[in-house]
Design goal:
single chain; alpha+beta; Alpha-Beta Plaits; 2 domains; four-stranded antiparallel β-sheet; about 40% strand
């Protein structure tokens, strides 16, 4: 296990395993949970035309998926989002007012 934390008051112990595993122990009962993979999706954003567009898209994705990483290529009009699923990324970009398609 790479990292561990405990909450004695609740009787809960958590430990990060290798890769995408989280082991949780509560009152002696162990449960292993799958954590989301570090997904990456590249989307075409044809209407992205300036730095303001990039900033608006970045803010929208980061608000919808805290911890996600956003890399925009203005010349190619694509956005690559890592750390969330494609549906969340597309939804956040749509909320910001931009249409997307697979990149």
């Amino acid at each position: 296990m790479a990292a561990a934390t405990a909450c004695g008051k609740a009787g809960l112990d958590l430990a990060m395993g290798e890769g995408d595993r989280l082991a949780a122990t509560m009152d002696g009962t162990a449960t292993e949970l799958a954590m989301p993979q570090d997904e990456s999706v590249t989307l075409s954003v044809p209407e992205m035309s300036c730095g303001h567009c990039v900033a608006a898209i970045t803010r929208a994705v980061e608000a919808a998926a805290p911890g996600a990483r956003v890399a925009a290529d203005l010349a190619a009009k694509t956005v690559t989002v890592t750390g969330t699923d494609a549906a969340t990324a597309r939804g956040a970009i749509a909320e910001a007012g931009y249409e997307t398609s697979p990149g």
